[in-house]
Design a protein that fits this description.
single chain, 114 residues, alpha+beta, HIT family, subunit A, 5-stranded antiparallel beta sheet, 2 helices, 5 strands, 22% helix, 22% strand
Length: 114
């Protein structure tokens, strides 16, 4: 989708500090971090949100979480703890309509979130 900023990151036409990429996903640093480590993991293929995923997306959904674990290892938060979050819809704080996981760490996380 030409109007999706994350699709532009996938195409390489929007700037991003990429941490990790493979054939299915890209992980890059959030431009407005909410924690010392705040990385977004997105599928290269446009999926609006988890609510729009279907049975054909099972593989990419698993791959997103494996990539999130790799992000945690590469940023040094795998052993100290981290949070993985996805927001679904504007009411939950989803500001870009492209499925993405937030990998957050580097500080204590409170509960409940939000």
């Amino acid at each position: 989708m030409k109007s999706c900023v994350f699709c532009l990151v996938v195409e390489g036409t929007a700037p991003a500090r990429i941490l990790f990429a493979d054939d299915e996903v890209i992980a890059f640093h959030d431009i407005t971090p909410r924690a010392p480590v705040h990385v977004l993991v997105i599928p290269r293929r446009h999926v609006v949100s988890l609510a729009h995923a279907d049975d054909g997306d099972r593989g990419i959904l698993g791959h997103l979480f494996l990539a999130a674990a790799e992000v945690a290892r590469r940023t040094g938060i795998a052993t100290t703890g981290y949070r993985v979050v996805t927001n679904i819809g504007a009411g939950a704080g989803q500001s870009v309509p492209h499925l993405h996981l937030h990998v957050l760490g580097g500080r204590p996380m409170g509960w409940p979130p939000g």
